[in-house]
């Protein structure tokens, strides 16, 4: 049995891919205020939330438990509206040697949008389950953030 794998989830969203990408590249620190799954986020190391060398500390609920981890931005592809993150620390390191997260805001041909989350991982042992709980977590975050972005757009039009 392989210790490495990749999981993905893709959800349709109401806000535009551009709005989503802008939020994750310029307002990542606000995510903690718009989803009940994230309890806190703070800059752990560095001066800028969106710099590749910055380390963020996240506190969140996963599978009914409060967990913490650290995150850095590995790369940003503005044309593809894709951000690659490295996730590590408390909740991750005892289960996974590698845990890379990719966020992608996808513009569909019909004018709609979708958010795709992909997790590439390597487990520390065969006893560790694939990170399915994280896909469920990202689905919840996506729904909460989308509702917030749609509401913010409505309020801006008033």
From TrEMBL:
Q: Which Pfam families match?
A: Bet_v_1
- Which GO biological-process labels does this protein carry? defense response
Q: Where is the Bet v I/Major latex protein domain?
A: 2-152
SUPFAM superfamilies attached to this UniProt entry = Bet v1-like (SSF55961)
Domain of life per record: Eukaryota
Which residue positions does the secretion signal occupy?
A: none
The family annotation for this protein states:
Belongs to the MLP family.
User: What protein am I looking at?
Assistant: Bet v I/Major latex protein domain-containing protein
Q: Which organism is it from?
A: Vigna unguiculata (Cowpea)
């Amino acid at each position: 049995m392989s210790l490495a794998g990749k999981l993905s989830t893709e959800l349709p969203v109401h806000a535009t891919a551009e709005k989503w990408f802008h939020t994750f590249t310029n307002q990542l620190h606000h995510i903690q205020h718009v989803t009940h799954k994230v309890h806190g986020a703070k800059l752990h190391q560095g001066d800028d939330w969106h710099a590749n060398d910055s380390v963020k500390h996240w506190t969140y609920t996963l599978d009914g438990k409060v967990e913490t981890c650290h995150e850095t931005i590995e790369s940003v592809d503005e044309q593809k509206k894709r951000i690659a993150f490295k996730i590590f620390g408390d909740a991750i390191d005892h289960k996974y040697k590698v845990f890379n997260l990719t966020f992608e805001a996808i513009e569909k041909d019909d004018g709609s949008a979708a958010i795709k989350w992909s997790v590439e991982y390597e487990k520390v042992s065969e006893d560790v389950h694939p990170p399915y709980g994280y896909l469920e977590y990202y689905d919840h975050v996506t729904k909460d953030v989308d509702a917030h972005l749609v509401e913010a757009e409505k309020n801006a039009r008033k």
